[in-house]
Amino acid sequence: MRTIDVPPDVYDSVTVPENEREDVLRRELAVSLYRERMLSFGKARERADLSRQEFHKLLGERNVERHYTTEELAEDLEYGKQ
Q: I need a labelling partner for 3 at 20 to 30 A (CA). Which of 23, 32, 46, 71 fits?
């Protein structure tokens, strides 16, 4: 996995406890890239390090419209067969 360097002044400016900053930044990036249709739900969820349910909840809290692709439909149908 590649990492993204966040300038120290930006990292230090995030107004959450230091032990939560990495998770917050990872989730914010995932939500933003999903909202802008740069990542699929699955990839954004992985980037956020959340379960499907947790990521759906996070998107709901942020009023982010869901994008549902045929690929995601196929995944859901396959999951339903298990």
A: 71
Find out whether 40 and 70 touch, Cβ atoms under 8 Å: no
Q: How far apart are CA 17 and CA 26, in angstroms?
A: 15
Predicted TM-score (pTM) above 0.70: yes
Beta carbons within 10 angstroms of residue 78's beta carbon: 9
Secondary structure of residue 35 in the 3-state scheme: helix
Q: Which tens digit of pLDDT belongs to each residue from 8-55? A: 999 999 999 999 999 999 999 999 999 999 998 899 999 999 999 999
Longest dimension (CA), the chain: 49
Two structure tokens written together for 52: 């499907």
Q: Of the candidates 20, 21, 44, 22, which has an alpha carbon nearest to the alpha carbon of residue 32?
A: 44
Residue 63 in 3-state DSSP? coil
